[in-house]
Specification:
The structure holds 2 protein chains of 2 kinds.
Chain A lengths: L1 H27 L8 H5 L14 H14 L11 H6 L4 E3 L11 E4 L3 E7 L4 E8 L3 E2 L21 E5 L2 E8 L2 E9 L5 H4 L2 H7 L4 E3 L2 H9 L23
Antiparallel strand pairs in A: 1-9, 2-3, 3-4, 4-8, 6-7, 7-8
Chain B lengths: L6 H15 L1 H4 L7 H20 L52 E3 L56 E5 L8 E3 L4 E6 L3 E6 L6 E5 L13 E2 L4 E4 L3 E5 L2 E4 L4 E12 L5 E8 L2 H12 L9
Antiparallel strand pairs in B: 1-2, 2-11, 3-8, 4-5, 4-7, 5-6, 6-11, 9-10, 11-12
Classes of the chains: A alpha+beta, B alpha+beta.
Amino acid sequence: MLKWNLKAVVLSISVGTVFLLGVNAATETYAQTQPSATAAGRASPPRLLPPAPVQWQSVLDQIARVRASRKGPGTVVRLVASELDKTELPVILPREGIVDTIKAKLISFGDAYALDLPQKNGVHITMYGNRNFLQVAKGAISNRPAMRLKGVAEDIRVAQMEDGWTATFMRFGVVYSLDVSCDDPAAPECKSDGYLKKILTEFDDVGIGSKARAAAARFKPPGGLTKTPPDAARNDQKGAG
Amino acid sequence: MRPFISMSRLLRVGLLFVVTACGPQTQTGSQVSSQSASAVSEDMVSSFVDTSSVEESDSASEPTAGASTLDFPHEAPTVLVAGSGSGYSDLSNWAPGICFPVQGAAFANSQVYSPGGDHYPSPSATNHGSQCDGKNYAFPWHDNFCEARSWTNPVCASGSGHQGQDIRPASCKANQYWAVAAEDGVVTQVGSYTVAITGNAVPHRIFRYLHMQKSSVKVAVGDKVLRGQKLGLISNNLGVSNGVQQYTTIHLHFEVRVAQAETMSDGKVLAANAFVPPYTALVNAYQRRMAGDCDTTSQ
């Protein structure tokens, strides 16, 4: 035991010495006018706003529209019902078609979620939904460049990432982000924002689970809901994930 | 008793001896104050005694309440390498309390404007130096959020720039040092060299980690992770293009995204997701790490 403790002490001194020599070497040439690191490190976080209200009337209207136009139950059947039931948010989903939903995996955080949609050839699609916002100053968002896509009602803000593209937009009072990332930096899906924009127009379906249905039922707009929360907005069949 | 002492304890105990032996020297810089050194010394003594007599009890699962900090040389947030971009002005701590996302010692700095980078010492230079140059593995840290890039980034003064912070591990060796979870959360995306985690706690930040060794990634989509949990080994992996492995320098690219909201003049709320500067949060996390918070070395 004593032998080990001595070894530990020697090793400790060595590690500490190397580290502190590095610190000292750096500080010798380091400007003394540096702002307080502690002050910077303890900068106050931005203010967290109360969870944003979901615009349930818009959600229910959209569900009714999509149901009228599609033939099958939609991609909501790919989601594990228990996970869908955990989120209070409307989960926006792609129509059947371009986006592969076979391996769709929903991860719920209550008032946020992530939907992972792995595609072929190392292409990854992830949709995030969240209604917990941090307050920013006037102009911080409205001054950001935005675009409109044919068939999409909202302003879309697109950015290139290190490994793909992302689009963020507000729908039903919730913030959504659609990420496309590629294992191959030269993959056509990630070389431009074309693929991202194309698939974004596909995300016009909506799935809601039991928590969301309950929240929609509590929603009392002036004049009442024009639609009732549909029990069959999702299929209870277990999906891939 | 576990025959192992964690890195932070080694570091702290080592600092005790060195600070004691050459205390006046440590006062020459603005970074290690006599107050912090003595405060750490007391903690180090008890830690060392504890380590030699009882079971290792460090846990990285929760932030240390009222965590103490130990300072280290770093440039201020928003101060980029000269000539590397117009920077940004937001000094907010967008991810307070996170676990520092790299195991052990680490150096936040520029991959592009430092030795071995494409713009060092200039884009047209014929010799860009070596990424293993000692300058890259030394203090002070440098912010490189908003460093000049073509990627849209509305937080940057120029409207485009780097969307995260690059962090080199303790030494210029690939596949040796772990990237670890910044918060308790769930893995929400995994690529061939990327991992994304969404935090359990509001505001449900999205943390993205890039350039890990593919075979070392220990998590899959849907996995719950704890603060400080190992994710993958930091490497120079930039994916495979047309069957050919692509490389970057050995570093972790660490990103934080949050949902932000602006109240418009008509009272309506306009919200969007945004990449936010992680540097301030990382400085604070490393200060806490040096004082023993989120010690992951022994995991």
